[in-house]
Structure prediction request, 322 residues.
Amino acid sequence: MTIALIDRYRSRLPVSERTPVISLGEGSTPLLHAPRLSERLGAEIWLKWEASNPTGSYKDRGMTVAVSKAAEDGAEAVICASTGNTAASAAAYAARAGIPAVVLTPEGAVAGAKVAQTRMLGARVLEVRGDFDEALAAAQELARRGTHVLVNSVNPYRRAGQKTAVFEIVEELGGAPDAFVIPYGGGGNTSAYAQGLEELGLTTPIYSVEAEHRPTTMASAIRIGDPVHAESVRAAHANIVTVSDDEIIAAWLELAAVEGLFCEPSSAAGLAAIRRGAVPGERLAVTITGHGLKDTENADRYAPKLSQVDADPDAIAAAARA
Prediction:
């Protein structure tokens, strides 16, 4: 039987016996050794495959806590601004709790698969004429009015849930890696990892990897111009690495072709930094934050092209060798 993340780490989370556990079986995601990438990159690479969470991203770790606490407090609705993954997670956990969800997405900035997933999960999706930062400001104002509970990562319950990834990695490795490497969009996950490390009494460095052109990067999950947790990232003494879209794409394609893991582009940012040589250490834990099926438009754009062939064995054999 699957153990809910809240039950597994109850003593480390801000919950009580009164807190209803709103769970979809999140957490306990695989930590996969990447032998071929390790050989190529000259370090022992471990991949925290957060794509196996219920909605396909790491956001579910925090959302189970945030929505459980919202339900405990009798929330009438939850709201979030999102570039996609938070949207789907909020919609799923709100549906599980029987609470309406409102999702604000920046105009034209969210992968279509994520919007479709969120709509299927029953949320009221509103496309805001503006960027993510403007959408978040509007969501925060509604939360201040008391009509909705905000479940973005500025909600401390979100970060409390997300820190559990650190616990799992350290437990499974039998100790801390030389570095944690994660994508950097809003900075909530960096803040959460720093919190987890502090609770374990560890000083392991965090490498937070951002896109060079934040507002326009093709990696839509980290397309955030003004990171709301920038100050927390600095306070955590995280090492910020900036990579180009070309570097993200190259790492993304390599991960799929070499290790058989299809993630969304932003999830490959950490590997892009390692490929550049920007992350020292012999054993590195790299968090792969979201599934590739969340961004099929970019997959179709950058994957090797399809070829047509006659239904003839000789023609097929020749085409396969080409």
Residues 5-57+157-302 form a domain with the Rossmann fold fold (CATH 3.40.50.1100). The chain has two domains: 5-57+157-302, 59-154. The mean pLDDT is 96.
